[in-house]
Structure formats: structure tokens, C-alpha cells
Design a protein that fits this description.
alpha+beta, two-stranded antiparallel ribbon
Length: 230
């Protein structure tokens, strides 16, 4: 047998010298070491949970939920609160992230949303005392859907005095002027702003410095967006 097998190359010896040894996942093992650190690293670099999930699916073929779950004795969905500040130089700075226990809804004071149909009513149902502020930027973008491209700049200029007015009353007067100028050509835009009026004007009760922070969802969206600089 020794002579017969002497010419047969050992399969183990024929493996390419990659320096990598195969590893087996232990029976009933549900987590692989290093994945948590990888996810945290990607999050720190600015990737959203959806982008991290897509990355793991593409590279490793693994399906990972995009929803954040926290293990503190037991795994559960919990809200994550971010403290976002603006420095004197105008730069945004994240002061910290805190995990809530899910019972902080009663303390919610204001929700800035993108104006998705039905969302303001849903917010009022869950947090009846919260103020709902629709995103001015999204409202402008939605307005352009009902206008010809050649009129976008003129419409944007005509609507600016509305959301930069010093008071709600002044905003209503400026909107009446917009209606007189453009309502005949684009009545759908007038209806859009009238329907969103209750959620558009709350930020006008604040000082101009605060208005710039709460009039749109851009601040939070830019925090969640991937950034190569992080």
C-alpha cells in the first residue's frame, strides 16, 4: 500500500499557501466574533443602518435587520436620541447619543417631519400634545411637482416671503399675494400649502436663529448621510 500511494499527492499539501485556515461555526452559534465591531465602525463612518445592512448582504451574503436593537438583559427595540448642536462657527456637532427605554413619548415636544401623507395625524394620535412641524424644504420640492420647470425659480422666489415672514399673520398675507400671482396657473400648489398650513407655521413662533434649525429635516438627514470625512 505504501508503494502504491507514494505517487499520490497529499490533498492537504496541495492547498494553496494562503495563510488562511478554515473555520467552522460552532453548533447553535448565532453570532460571529468581530461583526459587532464592524457594524459600529461603519456607523461611526456615517453609514446608515440600511446601508450597513446592504453592505453585509453584498460582501458576506448575510441578511441583517436595519433596525437597531439593544441587548440589556434582553434584546428589544428602543429609541436612540441624538443631541445635535450648532457651534458659533456654524458647524454641526453631535454632543451624544442616548438609548431611551421607550417610555419617553409623553415628553416629546416637537416633531419635524417631511410631510408624508397621514404622518401628522399619526403623530398627533401617539403624542397628542406634541407640535408637528412640516419640513419647508420638502414642501417646496413638492410644490415644484405641480409647476413647469421654467417657473420653478419664480415660484421659489414668490414663496420665500411666506416662510420667512416675521409672524403667522404676515405669512398669511404673503401667501395671499402668492395666490393672486400664481393661483390661477397652479391651483394645486395653493391647495398643497393650504392643506399643510397648520403644520407649516409653528416654527414662526420662534426666534430666527431657532427657526433655521427646526424648519426642515435637513440637519438630521445630513447626520445620517454617509460622509467620507468621518
Amino acid at each position: 500500500m505504501t508503494d502504491m500511494m507514494s505517487g499520490v499527492e497529499n490533498a492537504e499539501d496541495s492547498k494553496p499557501a494562503t495563510g488562511l485556515d478554515g473555520q467552522l461555526v460552532a453548533k447553535r452559534q448565532k453570532r460571529l466574533g468581530g461583526v459587532d465591531e464592524m457594524v459600529i465602525s461603519l456607523a461611526v463612518k456615517g453609514l446608515t443602518t440600511g446601508e450597513i445592512s446592504a453592505h453585509l448582504a453584498k460582501v458576506y451574503g448575510a441578511e441583517v435587520s436595519r433596525h437597531v436593537k439593544i441587548c440589556d438583559g434582553q434584546v428589544a427595540n428602543r429609541p436612540i436620541y441624538v443631541a445635535l448642536a450648532v457651534t458659533c462657527e456654524g458647524r454641526r456637532d453631535i454632543l451624544g447619543l442616548w438609548a431611551g427605554d421607550g417610555g419617553e413619548g409623553a415628553k416629546l415636544l416637537m416633531v419635524v417631519c417631511d410631510g408624508l401623507t397621514g404622518l401628522p395625524d399619526a403623530i398627533t394620535t401617539v403624542w397628542p400634545q406634541a407640535i408637528t412641524q412640516t419640513c419647508v424644504v420638502h414642501l417646496l420640492r413638492n410644490s415644484f411637482r405641480y409647476a413647469g420647470r421654467q417657473h420653478w425659480a419664480a415660484i421659489a422666489k414668490a414663496l420665500k416671503p411666506v416662510y420667512t415672514a416675521p409672524t403667522e399673520g404676515a405669512a398669511r398675507e404673503r401667501f395671499a399675494e402668492f395666490t393672486d400671482a400664481w393661483g390661477g396657473r397652479y391651483p394645486a400648489i395653493v391647495r398643497l400649502w393650504n392643506n399643510a398650513w397648520a403644520e407649516l407655521v409653528p416654527f414662526l413662533a420662534f426666534d430666527p436663529e431657532i427657526r433655521r434649525v427646526i424648519c426642515s429635516t435637513n440637519a438630521i438627514e445630513s447626520v445620517n448621510a454617509p460622509s467620507a470625512a468621518r
